[in-house]
Structure formats: C-alpha cells, structure tokens
Amino acid sequence: MQCKAIKTAIYFLVLSVLLNSTNSWAQEWKLEKQKNNVSIYSKQTDSGYKEVLVKTIVEANPHALIALLDDAAFSSQWIHNCIEVKILEEISPTERLVHGFFAAPWPVKDRDMVTFSSTTSTDNSVQIVISDKGDTKPQHPKYVRMQNMHGLWEANALENGKSEITYTGGGNPGGNLPTFIANSELISTMFKTFQNLNKVILLDQYQPIKITE
C-alpha cells in the first residue's frame, strides 16, 4: 500500500513539472502566425527587439539543411529580402565566417551582417549556431550593420523520412529603425523564409548522398 502511494506521489510530481514547464513555455513564446506547415512564435527581450522561434516539418533528411545553408550562392533565392551571401572564410569544414546583405523597404536603408556559424551533427540531428562577428569587417557605406545577431538552426529526424526544422534567433537591426517596425519585419521575413525553405530543401542537390553496400 505504501509502495503504491509513493508511485502515485511520484506520478503527480512528474505531471506537475511537465504542466508547469508547458505553461512557462506558452507564457514565454507567443504564437504569431501558423500557416502552410510553418509556425512562428515571438517573445520580447529587454532590448525591445523580439526573438523568434520558427518551426516546420519537411520530407527530408536533417542533413539537407546543412547542404542548403552551405549553398551561399542560392541564398537570395529563398531567404526573404536577401540580396547576397558571401563566405568570407572557411575556418574549418564545420566553421565559417559569413557576410550577408539584405534589402529593406524604402525609405529604410539596406542592411548587412557578419556572422560566424558552427555546425555539429549526428546521423539524426543537426545544429548550426550563429553568432555575431560584425566587428571583424569594416562597415559598408551603403549598408547599416546589424548588431548582436544570434541564432540556432536545428533539424531533427522524425519518422517516415521527415525532419522537424526550427530556427531561434534575433538581434538588433541597427540604425534608428523603430522597434515595432523592426519586430514586424523580423516576423514577416522569417515566416516567408520558412515558407520558401519548405520547397527548396526538397531539391535533389540538397539531399544527402545515399551509400549502398
């Protein structure tokens, strides 16, 4: 009888932790939009600029995300408002310094950012950490340098050859852009980017090579 009571107490304790964790997550992240297999959430930061969490499920191996992001020349075809992405330095097979240029609606000046990306992976998962390196390259006179940029790409294998892809990140758009405009643009840009990602990640050139015996 005592053993049963202990098991019951443990069950309710675990259930309570799970429920509190779920409620905490719900309070922290606010659903902004959900459509066509893409969900985007946001949360406010102390700076006033929002961070976003974007999710989607694709019929592709997690490693397809690495192949897609490695194709810098194709970036402008799917990353919304992207003008160009340049690889400044291949530090190692899993580390690189990247310079991205982005269009902004008139009369806002176009933006650029310099970031460092580090990739780790297993057979069933991928993580790509993005950190700001804007101080490593002089600012371009035609662009406003974005600051404190950070992000995390993740791809995790699901059943039936599918993967869940998520991106979490944010930063400071630089200049004198009002926060409400910057936040709205961030949410719109990342949602459209993931809509595009859903399509292009399925292209043959981004599928991992299958090795057969």
TrEMBL record:
<dbReference type="InterPro" id="IPR002913">
    <property type="entry name" value="START_lipid-bd_dom"/>
</dbReference>
<dbReference type="InterPro" id="IPR051213">
    <property type="entry name" value="START_lipid_transfer"/>
</dbReference>
<feature type="signal peptide">
    <location>
        <begin position="1"/>
        <end position="26"/>
    </location>
</feature>
<dbReference type="InterPro" id="IPR028347">
    <property type="entry name" value="START_dom_prot"/>
</dbReference>
<dbReference type="InterPro" id="IPR023393">
    <property type="entry name" value="START-like_dom_sf"/>
</dbReference>
<feature type="domain" description="START">
    <location>
        <begin position="29"/>
        <end position="199"/>
    </location>
</feature>
<dbReference type="GO" id="GO:0005737">
    <property type="term" value="C:cytoplasm"/>
</dbReference>
<protein>
    <recommendedName>
        <fullName>START domain-containing protein</fullName>
    </recommendedName>
</protein>
<keyword id="KW-0732">Signal</keyword>
<dbReference type="GO" id="GO:0008289">
    <property type="term" value="F:lipid binding"/>
</dbReference>
<dbReference type="Pfam" id="PF01852">
    <property type="entry name" value="START"/>
</dbReference>
